[in-house]
């Protein structure tokens, strides 16, 4: 069966520090991968998605970047965190596009930038 | 651009009663998919139900059913025989047929009272 791992679960970082959140998927090949952010009291905002290694699409201009060094690994990064980067970050994967396949979410990372 | 609107920030229902959560969306496309996700206090995202736009029949999953009105661009979720475990944040989501992106509404917080 497929599983998705996301870590860390919580993270407290000072403003201006770097960020690296990692997500890995097991039990499937060539998944679509996504990073979402959920700000307090708001819905989920799609940040990045990837349909293959090295293929990253950015949805909104921001202080963050994403990379996919391996087929089932998706990394969210920042060189210098801002206060506005605080939020709950969710990694997700799906089997393929143009279908009604489900989107499977990781357990999330609560990031607090102080 | 597609948008998803959930106009009820909070709802409450008594145990064993029925509650309906509203969702409207805007798109110019004819083929797409709609979803309801549940986010309990654990913050894990759980797929509740999904609907293909080309299907006229409303989707049903046990106590959960939808009222899909394509012309009105409405996609409401009905929870029958509400249980305490249904207490959660509920997100409506839209996915176009030919993209990989899932667009979420801002969510409705549902509280089930004993």
Structure characterization notes:
The complex is a heterodimer of chains A (114) and B (114). Chain A is an all-beta fold and 114 residues long. Chain A has no helices and eleven strands. Chain A has a single domain, classed as Immunoglobulin-like (Sandwich), CATH 2.60.40.10. Chain A has strands spanning 3-7, 10-13, 19-26, 32-38, 44-52, 55-58, 65-70, 73-78, 87-94, 103-105, 109-113. In chain A, the strands form two sheets. In chain A, strands 2, 4, 5, 6, 9, 10 and 11 form a seven-stranded mixed sheet that branches. In chain A, strands 1-3-8-7 form a four-stranded antiparallel sheet, with no helix packed on it. In chain A, strand 5 (44-52) and strand 6 form a beta hairpin. The radius of gyration of chain A is 13 Å and the shape is globular. With 114 residues, chain B is an all-beta fold. Chain B has one domain: Sandwich (Immunoglobulin-like). Chain B has no helices and twelve strands. Chain B has strands at 3-5, 10-14, 19-21, 24-26, 32-39, 46-52, 60-61, 64-69, 74-79, 88-96, 102-104, 108-113. In chain B, the strands form three sheets. In chain B, strands 2, 5, 6, 10, 11 and 12 form a six-stranded mixed sheet that branches. Chain A binds chain B through residues 32, 34, 36, 42-46, 49, 51, 59, 88, 90, 92, 94, 97-98, 100, 102-103, 105, 107-108, 110, and chain B through 4, 6, 33, 35, 42-45, 47, 50, 52, 91, 97-107.
